[in-house]
What does this fold into?
Amino acid sequence: MGLQLIPVFFIGEERDMTRRIFSPDIEHKKARWGWVFIFPSLVFFSLFNFYPIFNALYTSLFRKKLLSLKPPEFIGFANYIYLFKSPDFWNSIRATVVFTIGTFIPMVVFSLIFAVFIISRKRFKKFFQMAYYSPAVLSSVVVAAIWLLMFDPRGLSNQFVNFILNTPGVDHKWLANSTMVQISTMLVYFWKYVGYFTIIFLVGLASIPQSIHEAAKMDGVNAWTGFWYITLPLLKPTTILVSIMSMLQCLKTFSTQYLFTQGGAPMGPINVITLNLYNTAIRDHRIGLASAMSIILFCIMLFFTWLQFKGSRSDKVSY
Amino acid sequence: MMLRRLKRKKKTSSQPFIMDMFVWVFLVVAALFILAPFVFMFTASAMPANDIMKMPYRWIPKGFYWQNFWQGIRGNDGSFIYLRNILNSLIVASTVTATTVILSALTGFGLAKYHFKGRYFVFMMILATMMIPFEVIMIPLYLIVTKLGFQNSYPGLITPFLVSAFGIFLMRQYYVTFPDEILDAARIDGASELMIFSKIILPNSVPAIATLAVLTFKSQWDNLLWPLLVAQSEEMKTIPLYIVRFAEEKHTDEGAMMAVAAIASIPILILFFKLSKYFIGGAAVFSVRKG
It folds into this structure.
């Protein structure tokens, strides 16, 4: 579900240019039409977005079972207290944090490198863009299925690593070893989304006026210094945008971990919050507890967004 | 003149030449890495299972082993349920795409071009919902859908995605720059507001609509979590669920698995090659800030 999370802070506000060329009566009629146009969506959002978020908050205060006829019992913050005492939930937080840090940092670094390299080319720009972006098009289940086979003991990943390290016949236990299975999920995610963020960087790079680069060249600035002191500072807004987006994306990873555990990988190391949430709600039917989990996940995401946004308060760049 | 310029270029380019070569090699190697799993999927789908797991992997299949595709479509139980699941995915993804495009365009237009009180507040509220991850509201949504009796049905699969905040944002940003004069001219000529929307606005927003349509279709084609909750019977499952189930089954061999994956990917890859402009444009939406 790709792009549902974009920080609201990034949306610029246009000046409201109210022009009245018709009589007040017609203007009034026009305004009514505005409401008519937005009404269907407004109903939808109230029912399927606003109500659920409050409902999740409310349900998290109850002991509630799915499919149970017993009325839910109000237990205050007991669900949250239970979660904070549960080693299983702490493990999920650990798994999520490890996965997020291990994935989003390489993703930001490599997508930046890819973008800088691609934009410096005169030919094949389009080809590289398409090639790097293409994994993002595949559905995540297909991606997990492909990699599940490549991580097989006899699969391509072992063959490749053994070829590079010159260690024939060694099984690196991509899906069996608890450290390796975490690395495997990171690798899959990195592979799928790095091209997507490369595109965003490319647009950011293209918006830096060419004249700045030319002026720097005239002054005898070499490529490396130019990148470090001119391109990178000007690219700061894009970098922040990409880090927030990729981080939020990583925090809600689900499909890869789900299919890997279904495919026989150990659950513990990759039991991320979303996977835990799904199992708690659907397998164990503990709706109240799962709601508390989802609220905690929401708070974590809000916190990181706020943190990165705070670090970027002065991100207005003028060329 | 020409010669002198060439000469000067040559003199200064000995060190950048190494750098240049390095960048080319880096980009090509990275592209090979990124494309290798695709090649693996398509070649493996045409190989018998014991060829796939042979070391070293043979990148060119000996022939086309069509039994994989037959096995994948037929399923291990011979029920051909995959065809039904593909149909379900098509129905869900196209319905969601259609409603999202129409409702987002309507709402985006309303927010961009009608100056009623509270419209900025409404816009901000809708944007705020973009911050809510689906995972957080999925359980309440599930309870709502169950209450409405939509469980295990097309309405159940479709309703939570009828319109998207992202779509409204995209369309509104597009319409804000649309000249008011044209709309006013149409009004003076006696066009109704609905006519303005359908005859002027819609035909003039094809790029934005195409971007939104492509992204929506893709995200529905990809959707795993929600169908996992709602679709219980095999008849109502979508492609991702079929792949998950097929991967779990004991009799599944690797070739058939990759054939199933290839079948699921071909439509979206064709869409990508035909409409790559809109896919890439969709990714770029966020980095272009106006205002």
Remarks:
- Chain A touches chain B through 115 residues (CB under 8 Å).
